[in-house]
Amino acid sequence: MRNFKITPLSSNSRVNRSSHEVVLVTGQLINIPIKHLIDSSVEWVELKVRGELRVKQANLSVLLSEKVLISPKDLADSLIVQGNTYSEELDDRSLTINLLDKQQNLIVSYGLYFTVLRICLDVDADRDGVVEENNPNKGNWKQGKDGYGAILLVNSDRDRPEAHEEDYHLKGLLEIKDCSLMVVRKVGPKRLPSQYDLRVWVSEENAPYLRIFDQLETNYGHELVGHGHQQGNLIKQDITKDIFLAVEGLHYRDIDFDGIIFINLSLVKDNEILYTDRVRFQVAPWIMTPHTLSPQTVYIARIASGSNYKMIEQMRFVVGASKAQLEVVSSIRYRNDRWMQDEIEFGYSESPGHFMYVVLNSPRDRGLDEFPEEELLGIDVGHITRKNPEATTLDSFGNLEVSPPVTVDGVDYPFGRILFGGNHSDAPEYSTRMVKNIRDFLYAQKIQPPIELFCDWLEVGHIDEFMTFVPTKTAKGFKLILTSPNKYYEIIQALKEQHQTELTQRTRIGDMSITDLLSNQELLQDNQRFQRYIDWNRDILKQKLGLREDDIIDIPGLFQGAGHQKRAETFFPNMVNMLVLDNHLAIPKPFGPKINEECQIEACVKNLLEPFGCTCYFIDNWEPYFLGRGEIHCGTNTRRKPFQTKWWEIASDLTEHQQPNNY
């Protein structure tokens, strides 16, 4: 409660009247001490109220009438004054305090002239896409369908070709619609009393993460807060109507930013804050899309030599069958970089009434580095990046996936869980991890709590070399697919028992017979070790995703030891590195042993997957991708439909998940 103290007039003063201008905020209580004004000559106190003012003595609940005469001994130490409607004019209501002698003659008069202002900052706190008036929860946050709290989208797209971060204006509706709206409700009279201002401000901590624009009615919003200044005064003549402000998010959640932003509207007199209304925003997270969501566009780079021309034409049939589109990118301008999956990860961000695809650019910084900015960034397609000069192959995004939605020990993960690879305590010789700033970013989104797998045993070091998910017609709706050297040896051992030892497998080092494969002890021992590493990941995924053995399908694969640390390199095309487009699977052709022109490896995979509604397409990617130590998934990228579930409607934001101790 504010205090307003009246300075008493001196007893020897020639003047027996004083007047005071008082500014109130609607609903605000102000305490006015009066006992110090009364001396022994005063026998009566007359109080007169004009206009919409609620006046009472501090010790009583009864409101005073328009005119009342009170003995000083019955008068409280102070008066409490409140106005509930804003003024049309300055000083349009008053409280007069007349001090009278025994004959009720005036000794001195104190006139208090009130201007009542409405200081109200509004947001879309109920998340219906409309800014409602004075929602009681506008300064708070609650998850769930019955939740509340405004959401701020990071404006990471490009609505104008010439737009850049140093713009001090919003130019046009396309840019304004990427922002969250606030409304400063009509304040009251045509002008503020002198020395008063309306100020919009944020804390020093919040200032780097947003910008606020006013003057939106011109479609050319002016920056009020941002670029190093954390406050701005509203133009005074604007207060005769509701004022619309646009809030632009600048940064996603990260290790040093929890995504919580408070914005304040204050009534200020001579730089002293008299009253503040506050609203809260939560920055929308970046959300990844799992393979179980339907595809919209598949991207692939056309290699300058033409070596993947035939493969692209085969891919058209698979993409078309899934009712998606194939976008072929010329690799010439990107230094013939073909590894589309490694460069970017498609995700999205969403607030009520607004959706934006957002591409996360990896720190690998090779030929395709400029691709997302040059060809993807545009209207409602945003772009973010996390650079790091210490990036390794583990920081390419073949090493970044997300599971389908799961329930684990009664905890729902309706958006799945992010997966990326690193090291493992039981294999200290393989110590590389994804760089910290990428891990920080992924953990900070909270909506898809990450799981770190073991991938540094792989020469390329990507989890998509040993795992994927495919949608299936089962209760869970998906199967985890793992590559399995054991499964491959099981197949060729069975062929040996069928006396088919002369059948051949095409490998990275040439065609090898069943006999040669089974007799190669170094190859066997390496793959027994690699199988152990895959099984470690199997156990992690079962525990962290709540999977059972019947949720997992093992498909045949084989590796060879490479380099002085004997990391795993695929020995023939790695089928788990497939492109999943609904139930249509574009699988690297394995060139396995054939009986009656049927590849026994392909037959095994079809028998494993087709009963669950999958359609398998085996595509030759030997020359353009396999020989370059990648496969179909490595060479493509897919923009998928978003989840139908809204992230703010889930019962919990999963903030209980902490980063691991060895983080």
Write up this protein.
By secondary structure, the protein is mainly β. Helix content is 14%, strand content 34%. The protein has 9 helices and 44 strands. It has a 6-stranded antiparallel sheet with strand order 10-13-18-15-16-12. Strands 2-9-8-4-6 form a 5-stranded mixed sheet, with no helix packed on it. A 5-stranded mixed sheet has the order 11-20-19-14-17, with no helix packed on it. Strand 39 and strand 40 form a beta hairpin. The mean pLDDT is 94.
Question: What order do the helices and strands come in, and which of them pair?
Answer:
Blueprint: E1 2-3, E2 17-25, E3 29-33, E4 44-50, E5 54-57, E6 67-70, E7 78-82, E8 93-100, E9 106-117, E10 121-122, E11 150-152, E12 169-171, H1 173-176, E13 180-184, E14 196-201, E15 210-214, E16 220-225, E17 231-233, E18 243-249, E19 260-269, E20 272-283, E21 287-288, E22 295-302, H2 309-321, E23 325-330, H3 340-343, E24 344-351, E25 354-361, H4 371-376, E26 381-385, E27 400-402, E28 406-408, E29 411-413, E30 418-422, H5 436-445, E31 451-454, E32 467-471, E33 478-484, H6 485-497, E34 504-507, E35 510-513, H7 514-519, H8 521-545, E36 552-556, E37 559-562, E38 567-570, E39 579-581, E40 584-588, E41 594-595, E42 598-599, H9 600-609, E43 615-619, E44 636-640
Parallel strand pairs: 1-3, 2-9, 11-20, 22-23, 25-26, 30-31, 33-36, 40-43
Antiparallel strand pairs: 3-7, 4-6, 4-8, 5-7, 8-9, 10-13, 12-16, 13-18, 14-17, 14-19, 15-16, 15-18, 19-20, 21-24, 22-44, 24-25, 27-30, 28-29, 32-33, 34-35, 37-38, 39-40, 41-42
